[in-house]
Amino acid sequence: xxxxxxxxTSNVVTxxxxxxxxxxxxxxxxxxxxxxxxxxxxxKLVGLVTxxxxxxxxxxxxxxxxxxxxxxxxxQHKIEEIMTRQVKxxxxxxxxxxxxxxxxxxxxxxxxxxxxxxxxxxxxxxDFVGVAVHLLEQVESSIPVEEF
Length: 148
Prior knowledge:
This protein has helices at 21-31, 51-59, 67-76, 96-106, 125-142; strands at 35-39, 45-50, 110-115, 118-124. The protein is α+β, with helices and mostly antiparallel strands. It has one domain (4-142): CBS-domain. The strands form two sheets. Strands 1-2 form a two-stranded antiparallel ribbon. Strand 1 and strand 2 (45-50) form a beta hairpin.
């Protein structure tokens, strides 16, 4: 069995609930990531913010007429106002297959990896694309090439 900890990202970028929406937008843009686990002071997962959450916030509660006004509003609003609190997670000891099934079932782009309540990492749909590419390369390299 291949376990989640074998492909998860363990060096996870996180924020706290009192971080600003602006902080989340900047970090996601700078790090080129789409998911930010939100943790408390004990590294316990308390929520998740996605790119989609930020887009929804921009279009609704944080709508402003200018970019400067939008930025000021984002600095005033806290992550806890827009984060998802009921987050589906997976244990680092669970199978990769179980993680894939959970992502597919719930139509999520990521699963925070939580063991004994503590955030250990994150596994994303992009990680599974990498696994699929690797498997395809192995299959293709094992197929004999016909000579003409």
